[in-house]
């Protein structure tokens, strides 16, 4: 199984290349960069830096959306990254999340997302596209510069309808489902259902994101994982039920979640039991990481990516490094 890192592009640009080189040296296979509108720096600029400072790791958006980025514009951006990275770019797209609210938008409907995927692939193939699609239009649109390419396309998904759509059409799925087996099995079953309905021979590749921190100090680790755990009652409540969170607590957390990025959910997060936080996030020491990796290997998951949520650069990178170390130890056994 592969291991990855998902980062918000908030680092100093002149330091980020060194961070990427270090991560590749640790054994990180996938690097994902968030496209968080005004909540971070430009993911495509940082993807360029990452491509120029690495040789083997894949680099992707996690994730862009068809609301703030027209599919035609995103198609060109992805083809450019494909060229710069010499084929290592992965195009991650989703409906969009709470950062859209600051721009006055709501997440995309499923039909808009699927049409955006279709349009993007047609443009990548070199077609001239005229289409009144759901949520956007194209009029004799075609890519003028850059060779046609088939770039691996990943869909970010949690809910059953998006998971099934991803199973039908995506090359990969970025899975936000917590880290406990019941939630992961639930999500995988919907992905496989979509793949089966489409007559595909196999389901798409699956990368699971684990938000939080790896730390010997459990309080630090729990604090890092608590805010993403508060995201689930608001955005993907089915995983709360599967993880055993009482309905009254889920409703209180949902009411207290003020919006914005998951890091802004501190008040809501304090309402959550520690056991629920452990089930939904990456929080603990090396032994916890080892358990997660073994569970995911048993479920046939292709990659586990750490999304560190601590404040300091050093602690975030330490989480990524420890994940790579534990994966290497397991592989050597």
From TrEMBL:
Keyword Oxidoreductase in annotation: yes
Highest taxon in the source lineage: Bacteria
Record keywords: Oxidoreductase
InterPro entries found in the cross-reference section: F420-G6PD/mer (IPR050564), Luciferase-like_dom (IPR011251), Luciferase-like_sf (IPR036661)
Segments forming domain Luciferase-like: 12-302
Entry-linked Gene3D superfamilies: Luciferase-like domain
Pfam families, alphabetized: Bac_luciferase
GO molecular function, one term: oxidoreductase activity, acting on paired donors, with incorporation or reduction of molecular oxygen
Listed name of the protein: LLM class flavin-dependent oxidoreductase
Lineage: Bacteria, Bacillati, Actinomycetota, Actinomycetes, Mycobacteriales
